[in-house]
Amino acid sequence: MATNWQLSGDYFENCNCSVVCPCLISPAPPLTSRPTEGVCDVALAFHVDKGSYGTVALDGLNLALIAHTPGPMADGNWTIALYIDERASDEQAAALGAVFGGAEGGPMAAFAPLIATNLGVKKVPIIYQVTGKTRSAEIPGVMNMSVAPLPSLRENEEIWAATGHPVAPDKLALALGGPRSTFTDHGMRWDNSGKNAHYAPISWSNQ
Fold first, then answer.
1. Rounded CA gap, 16 and 26, in Å?
2. pLDDT above 90: percentage of residues in the chain
3. How far apart are CA 100 and CA 63, in angstroms?
4. N or C: which end of the chain has fewer CB within 10 A?
5. 147 near 14, Cβ under 8 Å?
6. pTM of the entire structure?
7. Which residues of 62-78 are buried (b: 16+ CB within 10 A; e: fewer)?
8. In sequence order, what are the beta bridge partners of 83?
9. Could you report the per-residue pLDDT of 77-109, keeping only the tens digit for each?
10. How many CB atoms lie within 10 A of CB 43?
11. Which residues partner with 174 through β-bridges?
12. What is the maximum alpha-carbon separation in the chain?
């Protein structure tokens, strides 16, 4: 029987597609368009403001998930890796791994059937920051990503879309990767500076 869980917080992602990513917004069904660079290299970073997995509290923890797909995302054959906040206890790490790996329902379960290779979980220091409308996450020596909103015709306002993205289906900001948005690990090396990005508040559960 699945463990009841819920969490709320903040997230952003930065991929290697040109703005705006056709995997999400195009004339074709979602995730079926070919990424603008042929493959997808994407990092998603999360901060849990408040959360629980059964009796295990998840408040204040950070997490990152990276994925590589060799073609359209809907075709599968994804390679993923998880990075969990080093402050997490073993119980908390196991809970986050279950939730973000899609094994316990919720939004990430939509991606689970597409994953062919899981490179595993590492416990690392993760710094997640929100400064105004900019989000950033750093894993020293591995990942340094930041995103900021695309400019809008309405001064100082963000562009929000209800795209149905499993992570934040009803409210997703269109954004751009900041300078030096890089990832290096597991034999992969990306620079997604100036590329497509999104961010949103999140509220998830498996209820």
1. 16
2. 85
3. 9
4. N
5. yes
6. 0.95
7. bbbbbbbbeebbeeeeb
8. 64, 122
9. 999 999 999 999 999 999 999 999 888 888 998
10. 28
11. 198
12. 50
